[in-house]
Amino acid sequence: MQPQAAPARSRQLIVRERRRYNKWVGSQTLEDYALRYTAEKARKYSSFRVANTAFGAISFLACEAIGATLTLAYGFANAATAIALVCALMFFIGLPIARYAARFGLDIDLLTRGAGFGYMGSTITSLIYASFTFLLLAIEASIMSGALHLLFRIPLWLGHIISALLVIPIAIYGIRMISRVQLATQPVWLILQFAPFVFLLMSGGREMAGWTHFPGRQGAADGSLDPMHFAICASTLLSLLPQIGEQADYLRFLPDSRKIGRWRWWTALLTTGPGWVFMGGIKLMAGSFLAYFALNHGLSEASAAEPAEMFFVVFREMLGSPLVALVLTGVFVITCQLKINVTNAYAGSIAWSNFFSRLTHAHPGRVVWLVFNVLLALLLMQVGILHVIETVLVLYANFAVAWIGALTADLVINKRLGLSPASIEFKRAHLYDINPVGVGAMAASIIVSTAAFIGTLGPMAQALSPFVGLAVAFAMAPLIAWLTQGRYYIARNADGLSTRAEQFCSICENSFERSDMALCPAYNGPICSLCCTLDARCHDVCKTNSRFNEQVTQLLSRFLPQRWLSGEYSGTGQFVGTFLLFNLVIVSLLGFIYLQYVAASPGDAEVVGHALMIVFFALLVVTGISAWLLVLAQHSRQAAEQETRHQTAMLMDEIEAHEKTDAALQKAKELAESANEAKSRYIVGMSHEIRSPLNAILGYAQLLERGTARPENAIQVIRRSAGHLSNLVDGLLDISKIESGILRLSRDKVPFAEFLDQMADMFRMQASAKGIEFRYARPELLPAAVNTDQKRLRQILINLLSNAIKYTRDGHVGLAVRYPSSQVAEFEVSDSGIGIRPEDLESIFKPFERGGMPGIQGVPGVGLGLTITKVLVQIMGGEIAVRSTPGQGSLFSVRLYLSEASAGSVSTERRRIVGYLGPRVTVLMADDDPAHRGLMEGVLRPLGINLFAASDGLGGLELASECNPHLVMLDIAMPGMSGWEVAETLRALEAPQPKIMMVSANAHDYSPGGDGNAVHDAFLVKPIDVDTLLERLGSLLGLRWIYEGEEPASEPPPALNASERPPLSARPFIDELVRLGRIGHVRGIEAKLKEMQSQVPESDAFAQRLLSLVAGFDMKGYTQLLDSVREEAGSDA
Known about the structure:
By secondary structure, the chain is an alpha/beta fold. It folds into 6 domains: 31-492 and 543-559, Hydantoin permease; 565-650, no CATH class; 687-729; 745-900, Heat Shock Protein 90; 913-1043, Rossmann fold, CATH 3.40.50; 1058-1132. Helices cover 60% and strands 8% of the residues. It has 39 helices and 19 strands. Strand 1 (502-504) and strand 2 (511-513) form a beta hairpin. Helix 5 crosses helix 20 (389-417) and helix 36 (1068-1079) runs antiparallel to helix 37 (1082-1095). The termini are far apart.
């Protein structure tokens, strides 16, 4: 029954000028809460003051004028009966309107919105109500002008101006000033209102009998009741029905019944709400009697119908002094008209504000509409509204009863039957533009009553046309509500709004009660009902299918093809609708003029009709052009709005992108600043970490130079210090490798128990040196070996144990190991040190972060150990956790999967290499560091390796062409050509290509090589480990190392198969091949063997055997094989 709110499709920004305007509008309305819900805090007046203000609005002398006019025209019987019946009817119709207005704090317009008419549907009723206010203002001010003319002989045209403009200074200040004026003038009005009747009753009431039998100008001679005349009287009186709207405008300030009590609340409501008809009925009867009284005292019928004249006559009779009577008449008429005219002007300003604010989404201020309403009334006064009062009121009554009838039917019938919501929803954000219940019932009522008014339904129906319209409205409202199942009352539910009693409007920045607020998706915040009304940019994104054009399209889609409702046909449809509306208004006005002229001069009907027909067709052209202009301007505006929305959306997207970029830049800036701070801490810590081992290296190096230190001890200290520096650099490189994703794990067979015992022995000594107990626990039964990366596992344990010892002053440090059957090893490193704060348990794993415990800055370190440890554990598929209590110690636990290694050789302690088997190999080294070149000479040449060294890449290429190396070791960063460029050049050579090993400090360029695609076969990062270098070199060249303490085993000369033995014709090549083998000239050997193959094809198998030995660098086997061939040749000879 109630559609859900549509999701927000856009977000509007609130510019400064818009907020300033809405604030100004809000301040214009907060005095008397015009255009909006009357807040609880605004209902501060007492029930008596509110009721007294509303009661003062009944002082209008139009009642006397209407009662006098009807009596003089149709007689007492018809007028009195109509007054009694219509007053009773208006009481029952006005009661629910007054009750709901006072209960919910709503004026008549807001009440109409929620009670069956919808947001834009009530715009029509606002126009009807505004027409009532300036129509009644014109009538009342005309009566006042007559009094001014009678009292001061002021011309009527000037009196009209004075009477109209006099109310502006009072009504401009709203209910506060109006209530003061009503309170001050109430005694004067009541005394002068009832004094004449007290006098007449005391004088015996001689006129009463004649009055009750007065037949009137058109009535029956015997003064009896005539149905037709009664109907005319009743229809005229029914035009006063909208007066309940003015009463409701005051009653909305009535305090809640729970504050003042139900008895006082209902008393104030009944007496001044629908109860206005009691005082109004008295005044109607008073006007009827005083007209008859004045007529009997010599006044003409026209003069007797004017309130100023009739009261002047009775005051003159009562006081006996024409002058005093004239003064009292002036005071009385001016007081009465001032009281009602400020009400008419005030109510009209609210009605016009409501009307135009919805159509234009703008509010120039209630003062503008106050002046506008007064000027309209002044215009009617100048054209003589009193001369056609009867006809005007009957015509107006048809519209008034259509509105009020449909409204009352919804409040009385629909709500009782559950066809409409129990509460009154008045906010634009929750309403359909058109509710067919009220609008449909009102339209049906106006059509039927107008048809009756022009006589199509007969004379009696013509006389009773307002009653016909009232009956239609009462019948149609519940019928339409039943047919539509009440689904057009609420367009969306009031969900998402805060439950706070006071809400803050996101546009005007004023605070309002929750009942006056709605949640606006266009602005992503709460919005007050008035700011919602004034907004022209949101296009009702908060609800779906609720706008007037959407509702019309939805209705027409049931009867017309869909293509007629879109594209080019939509403009035509809008033109037809606008054109018909314009001409309907024109026809109504011309029709009214025609009826007035024909009633005054029936003989001129044909001439008047012909003239008005010409006027209509002339205006038809004007309205057609105007309609097209309006439609095209509307389409142009919509296109401009659509383009603006598109451009705005693009700008908003761009702004959002800039905001994201700015946020990213800000975050990057903060990260950079944080990195700078970390770098500063890192430099300080790194300086300490580097200086300590450097101090030992430099110090012992100086002692060695002076010959004052034992070489063995000095070398051990220097080696340990250099190892410390190497590990420090390796840690930094590990972080870099981890960040770049190039860290690789190896799979080693590690003797688990021996590995753990070595770690324990290492740190037991460190703990003992510091005076700390070292606790070590492991299972007795452990696998002989496990598969893991030995270097990384050692690095993890070293980092954790080093930290535990560093941050423990006294107590203990422990290492506990468990290896359950799941093959998941568990390592626990505990200490009784300073501990870690709870807020630092996560940050200590970040680079350069060491926590904030007191005294931690005095401990050497850079804050990388735990970072590397955590990342290594994660890369190895494990878990790391920490528990700590500040001041008591910490416990780090690591879980790693260490599978048991299969049986086989396990890595053991490395032995010293002293040489290798086979022919001598040639190694070329290119490095710009002379120290490194000297190191390599000291390592390789003692092993029998021919080493050639160059200081740059170009020199290395020249040496390579001369010595034909088996392996080339290249640095990367060298003068001229880089190591990579040299490697690429070597690979491009057609000659036999050597193995290439990159040996460089450029760890970022690390690539293992040897995959067939890379230009190199291996990569070692400086500083190098000599054993690792020799291991890699032996692997690349296929060398069989001779270890210290071993004797090289003598190998028997290789035997030749019969097919491999060389023919006699190949014997001349043997000596040269032997000579080339002695000097290791591989390329020369290859060239000589090719020559032998070409000259002696039968020696191909023999040549292939020799080439295979040379390709494997087995020069010793090559020489032995040739020697055996020569020996065989000598024996054969």
